[in-house]
Amino acid sequence: MHPSSAKIMDLLAARGLHSQVRTLTDSTRTAAEAAMALGCDVGAIASSLVFLADGAPILVLTSGSHHVDTDLLAAQIGAQAITRADAATVREATGQPIGGVAPLGHPRPVPTYIDVELKKHGELWAAAGTPHSVFEIAYEDLMDLTGAAEVTVEEA
Fold it and tell me: What is the CB neighbour count within 10 angstroms for residue 84?
């Protein structure tokens, strides 16, 4: 197992969660790829996306079936502007590569927000530190684990 994935598994265990990190041969870099590899609905993929809110990194855990409306998100969190972080900023903020960003295990705390759409799925899948690793988690556990605030990322 990749050291990043092992770290995620250790962090989950330390919080009393019994999720297992799965390393897949197929890529899980995108929500569609992850859903195909896991045989689940793309909406059950909890994508970890890094943005800059007024220049500071934030993590948005969004349903794989959603696109983040940055204006809608900014209004909810009180930011003037939200932009997508580049690969170097993602790596600096999370210690992980784009396509493999886990919702935990970052070098420093990153303000985290969770898409309420994820509530509709019984089991969620999130990246585990690499573009080929994932773990299963319930919505409530993911919220508790990350301290995420609920947001709507896409208008219905």
Answer: 12
Q: Among 45, 139, 141, 20, which Cα is nearest to 99's?
A: 45
Q: How many CA atoms lie within 13 A of 124 on its CB side?
A: 30
Token look-up 């690499």 returns 130
Q: How far apart are CA 114 and CA 48, in angstroms?
A: 9
What are 32-85's pLDDT values in tens digits?
Answer: 888 888 889 999 999 999 999 999 999 999 999 999 999 999 999 999 999 999
Buried b (16+ CB within 10 A) or exposed e, 106-141: beeebebbbbebbeebeebbbbbbbbbbbbbbbbeb
